[in-house]
Amino acid sequence: MSNTYLLDRYEVIKQLGTGATGAVYLVYDHHRQCECALKQMRLDIFPDETQPPDPNATVLHEKPMPLNRSQARRLFKREADVLKTLNHPNLPYFIDYHEPEDGRAVYLAMQYIAGRELDALERNEISIQVFYRIAFQIISGLEYCHRRNIFHRDIKPQNILIGADYKAYLVDFGFAKPADASGKSVHASLVAVSAGYTPLEGYNAQILPKPQHDIYSLGAILYFLATGAQPETPLERANSEVELLLPYWNIPLILAETYDVILKAMHIQSFQRYKSVTTLREALLRADPTAGDEYIDVLTQLTVESDRRIHELEADKAQFKQMVTQAESEFDRWQAALNLREDKLETQTAALAQREQGLQQAEADLAARQALLEGQAAKLSEDLKTFERYTQALAQREQGLKQAEADLAARQALLEGQAAKLSGDLKTSEGYAQALVAREQRLQQAEADLEARQAMLDSQAAKLSGDLKTSEGYTQALIAREQGLQQVEADLADRQALFEGQADKLWEDLKTFEGYTQALAQREQGLQQAAAGLVARQALLEGQAAKLSGDLKTSEGYAQALVAREQR
After folding, report:
1. What is the DSSP track for 219-244?
2. Local confidence band at 273 (pLDDT 50, 70, 90 cut-offs)
3. Cβ atoms of 366 and 492 closer than 8 Å
4. Would you call 77 helix, strand, or coil by DSSP?
5. Which whole-number Å values give the CA distances from 42 to 3, 18, 176, in the listed order?
6. Which of 302, 307, 309, 312 is nearest to 144 (CA)?
């Protein structure tokens, strides 16, 4: 399974074991850069929350999946929470916990322990010293857990690993239960049953776990170590009239008093057992005085291991502080750069806001001016309509004057004909002379009236000509004003196009500024390289200058020698 990764962090080295609900892998943690054990629980094999678990299933080892998916996740999470609180040389330490979003599995990373299970030891390996060494190490780990009101509830040979120099580890806290402040444990809906190692009360899920649960299992472990045989179950012992006996002594020199301690720890009635693991340890030390030497060795090993862990923790703490300092320095540097960039952006934003305000004001001015021009154009349109009506009136008046002139000419011709006729009549009829004189006088009066009317018509014609010239000038002024308005509209269109071009250019300048910032960074790198090249070139020039100085001194000496020779 090389080159296989889990969670994009753990490189699988090999599979350590597999079970009904998941597997355990030996992996390399690329974050912590160390080997560790990665425990996997598959959630997809459990029924979902809509299918409640079997209420009659209370023994997990007999019915592997009595939980639904949510309960299985909480059970696995509880094991991780328990491991977080533990820090003891004979217990595995916690590394990390993961719940991927796909919900198919959960993972617990912990210390990898290279060792054998307790039942894999050869019988000839277990001397009286090895017996006590393993016993006191497991007792030490259990004392540590019980002081924190944590009960293991699944102690068996498969959950005890033996490493180098018979160092013992108590593992698999999947059924460990923390207690509240009063010491009353949370009610358990499931129990782990291991034949020969689970006490009688451990078969009943309704009974709250107590220290005596682990004490019974610890006594069964000591029984297995002493005899090499699995003890009978408490149900078998309760139905038998024969008390539990050691089938044979497998360890030389073990004392009968030690056997009594084991039997008391494995008593069927929990109240007949030892009150605490510490009391059991003290009973073992009293039963066999030679056990004290191994207990002292275990305590010494615990002290050394604790000192080593304290030293590692201090080293990790110092490294962490250094990393924090570096991170703070890096953060300060980035914060300063960010503040500088924010200041620049604020300045640019203010400039853009001002420019936008200017554009908005220009647009408002343009709209006002456009409204004014539209008003002026409307007024000009009305003026043009009035001018057209006035021009039509002038044309009609001119036609009336022409008709009056024609009428005047016709009347004058008529008068001239009448005058000619009167003149003939006058010549032919002297008697009619007086009548003619009178008529002549009336004719003169009519001519005077005609001349007065002709003068009045001439005056009106002159006035009409002046009005016509004035209307032509007004027409030219209106045409010039219309051309000026058209020019203003063209100027406004050009200015609006200019504003739009400036806005587009401003947007392009903003994009160019970001590119210019990147170009400045690249240019700064180039300047740094150029500076390095200048330093190297300066060193080369200094070397050449030193060489020239030496050559000059040599030339001066040679010149002095030539002068001396010339003098000689």
Report:
1. HHHHHHHHHSSPPPPHHHHHT-SSPP
2. very high
3. yes
4. helix
5. 22, 11, 20
6. 302
Sequence-separated (6 or more) residues with CB below 8 Å from residue 525: none
User: What b/e string do you get for 377-408 counting C-beta neighbours within 10 Å, with b at 16 or more?
Assistant: eeebeeeeeeeeeeeeeeeeeeeeeeeeeeee
3-state secondary structure of 85: coil
How many residues are present in the chain?
Answer: 568
Check residue 209 and report its DSSP letter.
P
Calculated CA dihedral for residues 491, 492, 498, 504, nearest 10 degrees: -160
Q: Rounded mean pLDDT of the chain?
A: 81
**Is 83:92 a contact under the CB 8 Å cutoff?**
yes
Yes or no: say if 261 and 283 are a contact pair by the CB < 8 Å rule: yes
- Separation of alpha carbons 205 and 154, rounded Å: 14
Contacts of 1 (CB under 8 A, 6+ apart): 12, 13, 14, 15
Residue 130 neighbours by CB distance under 10 Å: 17
- For the chain, give me the number of helices (H) and strands (E)? 8, 11
Backbone angles phi, psi at 452, to 5 degrees: -65, -40
Q: Collapse the DSSP code of 555 into the 3-class scheme (helix H, G, I; strand E, B; otherwise coil) and give the result.
A: helix
Side chain identity at 179, as an amino acid letter? Answer: A
Report which secondary-structure segment, H or E, holds 78. helix 69-84
Reported as a single tens digit per residue, the pLDDT across 42-84 is: 999 998 876 655 555 444 444 444 688 998 999 899 999 999 9
What burial letters (b/e) apply to 517-526, b meaning 16+ CB within 10 Å? Answer: eeeeeeeeee
Structure tokens at 313: 């923790």
SS3 468: helix
Q: What one-character-per-residue DSSP string does 111-159 give? A: -----EEGGGS-GGG--HHHHHHHHHHHHHHHHHHHHTTEE-----GGG
* Sign (positive or negative) of CA dihedral 141, 146, 148, 149: positive
CA angle in degrees (0–180, nearest 5) for 540-546-549:
140
Neighbours of 90 (CB within 10 A): 24
CB–CB of 230/224 below 8 Å? yes
H/E element holding 105?
Answer: strand 105-110
Other CB atoms within 10 Å distance of the CB of residue 233: 19
Residue 335 CA to residue 343 CA, distance in Å, equals: 12
Element (H, E) at 15: strand 10-18
| Residue range 138-167, pLDDT digits in tens | 999 999 999 999 999 999 999 999 999 999
Span of 253-262, 267-276, 280-289 with lowest mean pLDDT: 253-262
CA 194 – CA 315 distance, rounded (Å): 42
CA dist 143 and 149 (Å) reads 10
SS3 for 547?
helix
How far is it, in rounded angstroms, from Cα 309 to Cα 316? 10
CB atoms within 10 A of CB 370: 13
- 3-state helix/strand/coil string of 25-75: EEEEECCCCEEEEEEEEECCCCCCCCCCCCCCCCECCCCCCCCCHHHHHHH
Q: Does the pLDDT value for residue 246 go beyond 60?
A: no
pTM: 0.57
Neighbouring C-beta atoms of residue 274, cutoff 10 Å: 21
